Batch of 2 targets.
Target 1
Amino acid sequence: MGDGRLRLSSTTFARVLSTAGHPLLLVPLTVAAATRNWRWTLVIAAGTILPLFAIIVRNVRRGTWSDTDVSRHEQRPGLYLAAVPLLAVSAVVLYLIGAPASMLRPIATAVVMLLIGLVGNRFLKMSMHMMFAAFCGVSIVRVYPWSAIAIVPFVLAIAWSRRKLERHTRAEVAAGLLLGLAAGLYAFGVRWRPATAFQGDGSRPPHSQSGSYALPHSKRTSSSTRSAQPHDTVKPAPPCP
């Protein structure tokens, strides 16, 4: 630092990226950005994120878990077993307060994703950072397609950080990325309607016959009215007396 400038080591930068991409931070931010609904975000934060954070901190202080990432292979099942029921309870609460299927389906998919990670942990300690970075990345890109230019590099940067910090092998990073990507593509598939599925006031949009959420009635009406209007014609002049 002879030139007076602060130099950030690659390891420190990797820690910053890893913290920014931590599931406990990434998930509530994604819900807030994708839904723009404070009630649903609060349910996820209070029902899943904060209790899971408290469990992690308690177990780290007791020495049950090695660190806040629960990096040891043999300790990872405990993290899955804590996260799955908390996320399931949040889904039930969201259903009871009127959240639409477009909100509940991604949560159910995330639960299945965690269960697959739990089963697969017998063979490979898949990166949960990468699972949720890919899953949340797909959701944001589906709502804001222009964000892909930033989301893709961010997800790849998290992958680099997990390898740099030696938290995971290449196979574990790749497996987490592929699982999160597959889950995200399923949860936010082509029939999912990001423009109308999430309502800022928490109301349920009208259902379409396909099971996804259709356009609001006013927009459908105006669109169909415009398409149904006949072409303008020139009225004939009245006959001369």
Target 2
Amino acid sequence: MKSIIFFLILMSSVVFSQPYWHIVTIDSDGWEGYTCSLELDSLNRPHIAYVRWYNPTGKDLKYAYYDGNSWIISVVVNSVDILEPSIALDTNDQPNISYQDYGYLKYAKYNGTTWIFNTIEQYGRFTAIAVDSLNHPHIAYQETETDVFKYAHFNGSNWEIQTLDTQYASGQGTNNSITTDSQNKPHISYRQDSVGGIALSAF
């Protein structure tokens, strides 16, 4: 059985008084669309990061974007166990993707010509990424060795890592989301499993 990745957009109709959803099939090559992440660029065109399962050599991290005429699909990287990608676009509309690769927290950036890869930490999953106005990535994630919630930021030269929540719980730092404000400061929401609630962290 194949899994298919879809894109849905709410459209305005000139015929009907009510808006409607337009559904587009993007990729149906195999077990596509596991853990999708979506971002719109400056022209309101969608960019999607997602995982293809059950490739003969492991899993594919895939990237699809709409160029105004058609969907362009590529494999970013193939590995044994890729999970939970998150995508954000920089000021040039280039994709930045955080993801888990066989337990490692990794980051991929497209510079317009090729993909550049960084390994940030040995243990990391449940990633969420944002890119600020300086094109520096910010990543929130759960560090899986101790199940604490962490934040990684590229300062232009190096990756800086901070522990945000040290309360041990298996769900600590899952279901998280990150954004940056006008001063490039991160704001993060996440599941705080140690108290059974949701928390907001701001720099």
